[in-house]
Amino acid sequence: MSRKILAALGSVVLALSMAACSGDGAGGGGNDSDKPGDLTIGVSMPTQTSERWIADGNSVKEKLEAKGYKVDLQYAGDDIPTQSQQVDQMITRGADVLIIAAIDGTALSGQLQAAADAKIPVIAYDRLIRDSPNVDFYVSFDNFKVGVAQATALLVGLGLQTKDGGKGEATGPFNIELFAGSLDDNNAHFFFNGAMETLKPFLDAGTLKVKSGQTKIDQVAILRWQQEGAQKRMEDLLTSSYNDGSKVAGVLSPYDGLSRGIITALQNAGYRGDMPVVTGQDAEIASVKLINDGVQSSTIFKDTRLLAEQAVVAGESFLQDKTPQANDTETYNNGVKVVPSYLLPVQTVFKDDIKSVLIDSGYFTAEEVAAGQAKG
């Protein structure tokens, strides 16, 4: 074969090789030449039964679309196989980045391996995905501090501490009960550990007493964070541990949906003006109204607008072949690796904080708080 023919063949092979290298393939992560309109971000949210997750999904979608990206937003109805199938479909359709709030933090290893094989970066959204090396980034709040804040709110509500951290006038002892979230949600463990570390000195001193004796997370956890499950457990606790005329003074609840179930059980048992101190989380509008009405004591506000914004920032970094900025590279070990994370702060909301924290910031209007229903 002549040198000219060999040279021509070599040029063709080289051209084909360069063309193959220049394409990202399915989920190649994008490059500087890609336009936002050519890129798709898959957003997988766990459920629409919680207003918090609806707001998260919509916020992420709106912020990405405002920058010109295509968004494939899916809700899984709290069903693990559904979420697995939805993520599979996002990968098959050629998503360039995945943002996933997992139902079960241990159930997506196969999907994450498929994403890694297709070079699709994965951002764990608020819930850490465990037991996989293929989690590239984590955006969340400081979940241990959320637990600390919940326990502190319980102490403040009982009068054992003041809001500025000083010693309160109450002395106790107080009967309390503990609740935790779903065991398959990594955050539930951080919340509970932060809360228990804060309450331990008061429990050790006898100032606080868990009358049921149920103090371990596997005893107090509520599967899938279901309001009905919390109501049933509170009813059982009242029947089994408070049938002697004694009263529960406080309930550590890690989520507003659970809090409403707990409050329903307490009200059905005759608690009205003597409602125990009940904590919460997520500033759901129905619970904000209960706080405003003096029924629920507090909630922990996690501004999901900021969380969505941070997820978008991280996603754009991956699309531009950059490394997202982390502010924590030590805390969140998913069982295989420490996942670089960006953690946001939280705020505790009592009744007198509703206006300054929630209304003045535009999160809710005064009319929405009064009605207990968000217009959007």
The Cα radius of gyration reads 24 Å
Q: Pairing-aware structural class of the strands and helices?
A: alpha/beta
Strand content: 5-15%
Overall 3D geometry? globular
The topology string of helices and strands comes to HEHEHEHEEHEHEHHEHEHEHEEHH
Strand order of the largest sheet: 2-1-3-4-5-11
Q: What's the number of helices?
A: 13
What is the number of E strands? 12
State the helicity in percent bands. Answer: 40-55%
Mean pLDDT: 91
User: Biggest sheet, in brief?
Assistant: 6 strands, parallel
Low-confidence stretches: 1-28
Structural description of this entry:
By secondary structure, the chain is α/β, with parallel strands linked by helices. Helix content is 43%, strand content 13%. It has helices at 3-22, 51-66, 80-92, 109-117, 143-158, 186-205, 217-220, 227-241, 256-268, 285-292, 304-319, 354-359, 366-371, and strands at residues 40-45, 70-75, 97-100, 122-125, 137-141, 174-178, 208-210, 250-252, 277-278, 299-301, 341-344, 347-349. It has a six-stranded parallel beta sheet with strand order 2-1-3-4-5-11, with helices on both faces. It has a four-stranded parallel beta sheet with strand order 7-6-8-9, with helices on both faces. A two-stranded antiparallel ribbon has the order 10-12. α6 links the parallel β6 (174-178) and β7. α2 packs across α11 (304-319). Mean pLDDT is 91; it is low at 1-28.
